[in-house]
Amino acid sequence: MAVKREHLPGQVHVKGTMIQAHLNWLRSKGLEPAALAPHLSPDLRKLVAHNVLATSWVSLLALVSVDRAIALLVGGNADDVFRELGRHSATSNLAGVYAGFVSDEPHRFFEKQARLHARFQDFGASAYAETGPKSGRMTLTSYVEYSPVFCLSAVGYYQGALETMKAPGPIRVKETACTCAGDNACVFDLTW
């Protein structure tokens, strides 16, 4: 893949449930969101200081900024932290508030996930295709804003979703094309 770039003017949004899950992951590490303050702008400090509702819309820029602050605070490999934030988002939300979206069959879940894309983001489009009995491909297109941080979180999310469905494994998620690298879409190949 080519060098990854980012485009985040702050005009597109994701559901608050994403940032909630990421802040809850931070709490699970024994850290409170207030500890992020030195790494955040004053507006973002206010955002993480209050309870973000699951149904609220939060800018993608805010989510990525908070994720970067979390990675700085906990240390270690930032890419691993971003994947873990996405994984936690899937395992916590799909076992909780969005448990009704989970299917016993991964292909059905990802087909539904693609159809419901607009419920969780106000940008882009999603399509899912089966590539084998235990494999599929999620394709995200028309992303007018993008970040490698969000893509790594997506890898973790798809992994966590498969874990929540108790897919037999081994579970593998690989991003094979990326808007951040100049491709027309972000493409995630999933096997289980």
Throw out a few tags for this protein.
alpha+beta, H-NOX domain, single chain, two-stranded antiparallel sheet, 18% strand, 4-stranded antiparallel sheet, 192 residues
List the helices and strands and how they pair.
Elements: E1 13-15, H1 16-28, H2 42-49, E2 57-59, H3 60-74, H4 78-95, H5 106-115, H6 117-120, E3 125-132, E4 135-141, H7 148-164, E5 172-177, E6 185-191
Antiparallel strand pairs: 1-2, 3-4, 4-6, 5-6
Polypeptide structure, described:
The protein has 192 residues and is of the alpha+beta class. The protein has a single domain (13-191), classed as H-NOX domain, CATH 3.90.1520.10. The protein is 44% helix and 18% strand. α1 (16-28) packs parallel to α3 (60-74) and α3 (60-74) crosses α4. The longest helix has 18 residues, at 78-95. The mean pLDDT is 93.
Number of separate domains: 1
**Sheet of most strands:** 4 strands, antiparallel
- The name of the CATH superfamily reads H-NOX domain
Looking at the structure, the CATH topology is H-NOX domain
Number of helical runs? Answer: 7
- The succession of helices and strands, N to C, reads EHHEHHHHEEHEE
Task: Evaluate the radius of gyration.
Answer: 16 Å
Helix content: 40-55%
Q: Beta-sheet strand percentage?
A: 15-25%
Reported CATH architecture = Alpha-Beta Complex
Largest sheet: spatial strand order: 3-4-6-5
Q: What average pLDDT do the residues reach? A: 93
Secondary structure tally: strands: 6
According to CATH, what is the class?
Alpha Beta
- Report how far the terminal alpha carbons are from each other: 24 Å
Overall 3D shape:
globular
Question: What structural category characterises the helix and strand content?
Answer: alpha+beta
Low-confidence stretches: none
